[in-house]
Amino acid sequence: MTFVSALPARLLQAAAFPDTIIARTIPERGMLDWTSGVLQIIVLLLGIGVLIATILLILSMRAGVRKFNETVDRLSTETKPLLASATAIVGDAREVVSMLRTDVERVTGAAEALSEQLLDAADRTARRVDDVNAVLDVLQDELEDTALSAVSAIRGVRVGAGEMTAGLSHPRPRRAPFPVDADDDEA
After folding, report:
1. Residues 91-116 pLDDT 10s
2. I need a surface site. Which of 89, 95, 154, 169 has the fewest CB within 10 A?
3. Which keywords label this protein (predicted)?
């Protein structure tokens, strides 16, 4: 039977016996009950202390977060001009780098063109030097041949003139009109 269904019956009983005293006996509390109660009060007080400490900690953290937010806001307002300047410097640096890159590309192109021209000029000069050397070799050969022919002709004239004059004049001991050099024999 539930409490709600038993309620009207108890009320009727109370109405029927108005003089009835209902006594309830309270068991005597022992040492364990007293210590349990004291411990429950201590735990309650400790819980309240922890709750108060937690609230104070949260409030101090909230104040710290506010100060941190204020510091961040102040730093952000103070660093905005620095960031703007840094951004401008980076932009200028990019422009300088692009200009330098363009100039370096131009210089590189000019150096390549000059290098090609110098290589072509060196090739042409080398060919001309080779041509001049070939001409000088041919000229030297011709001069040597001409000099040998001229020396031979002069020697032949001398020897012939000496023979002709030896036969016209009185006889002399025969000797060579000119000394014979070892170089002349080779020619």
Report:
1. 999 999 999 999 999 999 999 999 99
2. 169
3. Membrane, Transmembrane, Transmembrane helix
Using the structure block, give the residue that is written with the tokens 């060196």.
122
Task: Classify residue 166 by its DSSP letter.
Answer: H
* Element at 168 (helix H, strand E): helix 31-168
Q: What is the pTM of this model?
A: 0.35
Residue 187's contacts (CB-CB under 8 Å, 6 or more residues apart) are 148, 151, 152
CB 184 within 8 A of CB 154: no
Total count of residues recorded for the chain = 187
Q: How far apart are CA 26 and CA 170, in angstroms?
A: 195
Residue where the block lists tokens 């038993």: 6
Q: What is the distance between the alpha carbons of residues 150 and 95, in angstroms, rounded to a whole number?
A: 80
What are the structure tokens assigned to 180, written together? Answer: 């014979």
